[in-house]
Amino acid sequence: MTQVLRLGVLVTVWLMLWSDLSWANLVSGFVVAGAIATLFPAWNRGILAIRPLAFAKFAIYFLYKLVQASLVVAVTVVVPHKRVRRGIIAVPLQGCSDAVATLVADAISLTPGTLTLEVRREPLTLYVHALDTRDVTQVQREVRTLELLAVRAFGDADAIAGLAVDDITSWRAE
Amino acid sequence: MNGTITDILALIGAAFVLLAGIGTLRFGDLYGRMHAATKATTLGFALVALAAASGLEHGRAKVLLVVVFVFITSPAVAHFVGRAAYRAEGVDIELEGPDDLHIIIDEHDKPGGQ
Questions:
Q1: Which residue of B has its CA nearest to A21?
Q2: Same structural domain for residues A36 and A107?
Q3: A65 and A28: one domain?
Q4: What is the DSSP track for A85-106?
Q5: What digits encode the pLDDT tens for the residues A4-45?
Q6: Record: contact A90-B61, CB cut-off 8 A
C-alpha cells in the first residue's frame, strides 16, 4: 500500500510537470517513478501514510498561520514596533519520525514569530528563534499544536498511539 | 471577472513581497530580517503564482507544483542561514530573552572561540 502511494506521488508530480494528461505521460511517469524507487533506496524508507481528513486540518491550520505571519510582518513594517524579548527556545518534540519532524520544522519557520534554527536528536528537540519569549510555554504550545496536527496527518500508527497518551490537553494542563 | 481575480491576487502577492523587502531592510538584526524574508515572501510568491495559474490557459498544474516546491525549500533555506549565522562571527544577532542553543553549541564550533 505504501509502495503504491509512493509511486502515486511521483507519477502525480510527473503529470503536473507536463501539465498534460495523456497515456504517453502516464506510462512514462510510471517508468520514471519505478526507476527512482529502484535506484534511490532512501525513497522507500519508512512508512508513508496520508490521512486525508487530518491532512486537510493540518493544511488549513498551516495556511491560516502563514497568512497571519505575513500580516504580522506587513503590519510591523508599516507601524514601527516595540521590541519584545527575542530569544532561542528549545522545544522537545514527542516521538515523531524524521520526516514528520522535518515537516514540523519547516512549518514553524512559516508561522508567526518563530524560526527553526537547529534540530537535535536524542531527545528530538527543535531550537526555535522566537520574536516574543515573554511566555515560553506559549511558544512551545504552538510548536506542539503543529506537531500534533502533522503526526495525525502523516504519522505511523505508533506515533498516533503515542499522541493518545500525551494529549494536547495534558500538555495544556502543565 | 476571472481577470479581476487574477489582478487582485497578483497585487496582494506583490504587496506582501514588497513589504517583506522593506522589512528585510528595516528590521534590526539578522533573525528579524529573516522572519520578514521567509514568511511574507513565501505567501506573496504563492499568491502571485496563483494569479499566474488563474490567468494561464495551459500549464496551471506546473505553476501549482512550483508553489509546493517553494513551500518546501523556503523554510529549509531559512533554517540553514539561521544555523550558519549562529556559528559565524560578526553577525548581528540581538537576543534579550533566553538562549537555549548556547548550551549545546560548543565554543569550539565558533571560528574565533577556544
A1: B61
A2: no
A3: no
A4: --EEEEEE--S--HHHHHHHHH
A5: 888 888 899 999 888 878 899 899 999 999 898 888 877 777
A6: no
